[in-house]
Fold:
Amino acid sequence: MASNYKKQNPIIAAGLSNKYNKYQSDRYTFTTYPTIVMKLRKAYLLSFLLVIFACTSDDGRTNNPFLIDIGFQIDLNTNLPQFGNLNFDLNFVTVPDVGLRGIIVYRISSNQYVAYELSDPNHSPNSCSRMSISGIEATCPCPEDQNKYNVITGQPIQGDGRFGLKAYRAERIGEVVRVSN
Structure:
């Protein structure tokens, strides 16, 4: 029995036993209070540093000075004929009385929709800033710039504008596509 105990307990097996630890088994090892406090301090410090360095500034982000944020929510029922194109991939509908100059809602796949403002994001809204849609391109009819944008990604294709299309949140809930800002 004693020889089996020596094999199980590494302190006794290493020959480091004394009168205080010879009855100590592996199940009942105790750590001292200062050791636990030091581990907690290290964990708090590590988590604090992680939070500090994980947060980044959004100073590099440039807000579009031409388009203001308008809060809205519209539900487009795909059972209605005017929104029926949203039942098929790679189709779109335009809604003229929402947002600044209207919105376009584009269905990429059965569960992925994108929605954008129809006003050109690279100049102030005016009489010619409402874009026309042709395929997957949105074109500004203003003669001075001729900006073009990809409707799927919202990025500029042609022109000297530095802003992409203003995106809105679009999600399908049953038979309704909800667009909101």
Remarks:
- The chain has two domains: 2-54, 73-180.
- The radius of gyration is 32 Å.
- The helical segments are 2-8, 10-13, 33-54.
- Residues 73-180 form a domain with the Rieske Iron-sulfur Protein fold (CATH 2.102.10.10).
